[in-house]
Amino acid sequence: MDRQAYGNYGADEEFFRKKLLSPNAKILIVENAGKITGFTVFEILKQNEIPKDFSDLEISKPLKEKWMYIIAFTTKANYEDVDADIQLLQAAEKLARNLKCNTFCVPLSKDHPYPKAYNFFEINGYQKVGSIKWRASPTEKIDCYLYLKSTS
Fold first, then answer.
1. Handedness of CA 26, 19, 78, 109 (dihedral sign)
2. pTM, two decimal places
3. CA-CA distance, 130 to 58, in Å (whole number)?
4. pLDDT averaged over every residue in the chain
5. Above 60 in pLDDT, residue 2?
6. What kind of fold does domain 2-150 have according to CATH?
7. Are 34 and 98 in contact (CB under 8 A)?
8. DSSP string, 62-92
Protein backbone atom coordinates (compact mmCIF):
# COMPACT_ATOMS: atom_id res chain seq x y z
CA MET A 1 0.00 0.00 0.00
CA ASP A 2 2.89 2.39 0.75
CA ARG A 3 4.32 1.78 -2.74
CA GLN A 4 0.85 2.30 -4.27
CA ALA A 5 0.63 5.67 -2.54
CA TYR A 6 4.19 6.83 -3.07
CA GLY A 7 5.59 4.77 -5.96
CA ASN A 8 9.28 3.89 -5.70
CA TYR A 9 9.57 6.65 -3.12
CA GLY A 10 7.54 4.52 -0.65
CA ALA A 11 9.12 2.02 1.68
CA ASP A 12 9.53 -1.45 0.25
CA GLU A 13 8.77 -4.87 1.69
CA GLU A 14 12.35 -5.40 2.90
CA PHE A 15 12.29 -2.10 4.80
CA PHE A 16 9.06 -3.03 6.57
CA ARG A 17 10.26 -6.56 7.28
CA LYS A 18 13.32 -5.19 9.11
CA LYS A 19 11.28 -2.64 11.03
CA LEU A 20 8.58 -5.12 12.04
CA LEU A 21 11.20 -7.49 13.43
CA SER A 22 12.33 -4.76 15.81
CA PRO A 23 11.11 -5.35 19.38
CA ASN A 24 10.29 -1.62 19.55
CA ALA A 25 8.05 -1.60 16.45
CA LYS A 26 4.28 -1.29 16.59
CA ILE A 27 1.73 -1.34 13.78
CA LEU A 28 -1.87 -0.19 13.63
CA ILE A 29 -4.10 -1.10 10.70
CA VAL A 30 -7.37 0.43 9.53
CA GLU A 31 -9.75 -1.94 7.77
CA ASN A 32 -12.94 -1.29 5.87
CA ALA A 33 -15.03 -4.23 4.63
CA GLY A 34 -12.10 -6.58 5.25
CA LYS A 35 -9.62 -4.52 3.22
CA ILE A 36 -6.71 -2.54 4.63
CA THR A 37 -7.34 1.16 4.01
CA GLY A 38 -4.56 2.58 6.14
CA PHE A 39 -1.75 1.78 8.51
CA THR A 40 0.94 3.31 10.62
CA VAL A 41 4.19 1.74 11.73
CA PHE A 42 6.17 3.30 14.55
CA GLU A 43 8.95 2.56 17.01
CA ILE A 44 9.30 3.60 20.63
CA LEU A 45 12.87 4.78 21.18
CA LYS A 46 14.87 5.72 24.26
CA GLN A 47 15.96 9.23 25.15
CA ASN A 48 18.44 10.48 22.52
CA GLU A 49 18.27 7.15 20.64
CA ILE A 50 18.48 7.81 16.90
CA PRO A 51 17.09 5.34 14.33
CA LYS A 52 19.69 3.65 12.15
CA ASP A 53 17.96 4.98 9.04
CA PHE A 54 18.53 8.63 10.12
CA SER A 55 21.65 10.58 9.25
CA ASP A 56 22.66 14.23 9.51
CA LEU A 57 20.09 14.93 12.25
CA GLU A 58 19.75 18.63 13.07
CA ILE A 59 17.02 19.55 15.56
CA SER A 60 16.22 22.58 17.68
CA LYS A 61 14.65 20.55 20.51
CA PRO A 62 16.55 17.68 22.15
CA LEU A 63 14.84 14.31 22.55
CA LYS A 64 14.84 14.42 26.36
CA GLU A 65 12.66 11.38 26.95
CA LYS A 66 11.35 8.22 25.36
CA TRP A 67 9.89 9.08 21.95
CA MET A 68 7.74 7.67 19.18
CA TYR A 69 9.21 7.63 15.66
CA ILE A 70 6.48 7.34 13.03
CA ILE A 71 8.11 5.25 10.32
CA ALA A 72 5.13 5.09 7.99
CA PHE A 73 1.71 6.70 7.95
CA THR A 74 -0.27 5.69 4.89
CA THR A 75 -3.98 5.80 4.22
CA LYS A 76 -6.03 5.22 1.11
CA ALA A 77 -7.17 8.85 1.24
CA ASN A 78 -3.60 10.25 1.45
CA TYR A 79 -4.56 13.11 3.78
CA GLU A 80 -7.85 13.85 1.97
CA ASP A 81 -10.05 12.26 4.68
CA VAL A 82 -8.64 14.23 7.58
CA ASP A 83 -11.09 12.83 10.16
CA ALA A 84 -10.18 9.21 9.41
CA ASP A 85 -6.47 10.02 9.29
CA ILE A 86 -6.71 11.85 12.63
CA GLN A 87 -8.31 8.77 14.22
CA LEU A 88 -5.37 6.62 13.11
CA LEU A 89 -2.81 9.15 14.36
CA GLN A 90 -4.58 9.58 17.70
CA ALA A 91 -4.76 5.80 18.17
CA ALA A 92 -1.00 5.55 17.60
CA GLU A 93 -0.30 8.40 20.01
CA LYS A 94 -2.58 6.81 22.63
CA LEU A 95 -0.73 3.51 22.34
CA ALA A 96 2.58 5.36 22.73
CA ARG A 97 1.29 7.22 25.81
CA ASN A 98 0.25 3.87 27.31
CA LEU A 99 3.92 2.90 26.89
CA LYS A 100 4.95 6.03 28.86
CA CYS A 101 5.92 7.99 25.76
CA ASN A 102 4.87 11.63 25.42
CA THR A 103 7.04 12.82 22.53
CA PHE A 104 6.07 11.96 18.97
CA CYS A 105 8.16 12.56 15.83
CA VAL A 106 7.60 12.08 12.12
CA PRO A 107 10.03 12.76 9.27
CA LEU A 108 8.36 14.19 6.15
CA SER A 109 10.34 14.47 2.95
CA LYS A 110 11.04 18.00 1.80
CA ASP A 111 9.43 17.17 -1.55
CA HIS A 112 6.58 15.09 -0.13
CA PRO A 113 4.26 13.80 -2.88
CA TYR A 114 1.25 14.75 -0.73
CA PRO A 115 1.86 18.35 0.43
CA LYS A 116 -1.22 18.16 2.68
CA ALA A 117 0.89 15.92 4.94
CA TYR A 118 2.66 18.96 6.43
CA ASN A 119 -0.61 20.68 7.31
CA PHE A 120 -2.11 17.43 8.61
CA PHE A 121 0.63 16.98 11.20
CA GLU A 122 0.67 20.70 12.06
CA ILE A 123 -3.08 20.76 12.82
CA ASN A 124 -2.43 17.79 15.09
CA GLY A 125 0.10 19.73 17.16
CA TYR A 126 3.36 18.79 15.43
CA GLN A 127 6.01 21.46 14.83
CA LYS A 128 8.89 21.45 12.38
CA VAL A 129 11.97 21.26 14.62
CA GLY A 130 14.74 20.32 12.23
CA SER A 131 15.88 18.11 9.42
CA ILE A 132 17.33 14.69 8.76
CA LYS A 133 18.37 12.54 5.89
CA TRP A 134 16.35 9.31 5.82
CA ARG A 135 18.21 6.31 4.43
CA ALA A 136 15.54 4.78 2.20
CA SER A 137 18.07 2.21 0.98
CA PRO A 138 21.83 1.64 1.22
CA THR A 139 22.32 3.96 -1.76
CA GLU A 140 19.49 6.50 -1.35
CA LYS A 141 19.05 9.29 1.20
CA ILE A 142 15.97 11.50 1.24
CA ASP A 143 16.05 15.02 2.72
CA CYS A 144 13.31 15.34 5.35
CA TYR A 145 11.91 17.82 7.81
CA LEU A 146 11.47 16.44 11.32
CA TYR A 147 8.17 17.26 12.99
CA LEU A 148 7.75 16.86 16.76
CA LYS A 149 4.86 16.94 19.21
CA SER A 150 5.36 16.78 22.96
CA THR A 151 2.57 16.39 25.49
CA SER A 152 4.69 16.36 28.65
1. positive
2. 0.85
3. 5
4. 86
5. no
6. Aminopeptidase (3.40.630)
7. no
8. ---S-EEEEEEEEETTTTSSHHHHHHHHHHH
